[in-house]
Amino acid sequence: MNNKPDVSLVIINYNKPEYTKSCIHSIIKHTALVSYEIIVVDNASTQGDISDIESIDSRIKLVRSSENLGFAKGNNLGIEHTSGEVVLLLNNDTLLLNDAVGLAYRFLTSKSNAGVVSARLQYPDGNIQHCAQPLPEIKYLLIQLFRLQKLMPKARREEILLSTFFDHNRDVKAGWVWGTFFMFKKSMLPFLPAGKLADDFFMYNEDLQWGIETARAGYETWFCAEAKVVHFEGQNTFKNEMASQNFEILMNRYYGSLYYRVYKAIEKLAHSLS
């Protein structure tokens, strides 16, 4: 008898047990299409008590880290404790609006070339979060610089530019998606450069790195419109600086320093003309 769950969820907790518990209650309330387990990784919290988290449901396992590993390494620690063949990395500042786990799982497993799928994320007020993005390639900047998207059929424009350009009520293939709701097939991990999700960065742009490596491994990344999630998205004053530094590292590593300099020059020009 196979007792493996369909989906293993990994949730990072750091000083916000109330968010984590609310997130888990929304999972239990809405998830019916699939069997699942929940791995909660406590990233060496210094505030809040998470010790009773396992008492909420028998499918919950608490993993404690002796140090704050950051987002990517914390998730990789959780992944080590999963038994399902499909894993969902889920931010603790989220609430499911429907059976997003089951719907995303059904979508992901129906596509042989798909490695990753994300859900439709929205703010508490209902406004859409643009979690599906194109890869950071010069051709997309040039399209926007010269306003070429205005000459494209709507479907083609949405397919290429993603972000704010596409109808979030339909499924679309993306270059990369946010790590907020990041469901993937474990079977793709051996084909990634490190044999796991890259965890070079403590925080920010690790999801972009995952998207680049997923694409280069020959897997597709998708946005599933039917799966709906509220994301509270906390603010961090260091985010822009850290994200910018990490982006430069990624561009130099995967595209080369010359490509990055040209990319930034075009981006700056496009912003000045917008």
TrEMBL record:
It comes from the Bacteria. Residues 8-166 form the Glycosyltransferase 2-like domain. This is Glycosyltransferase 2-like domain-containing protein. It comes from Taibaiella soli.
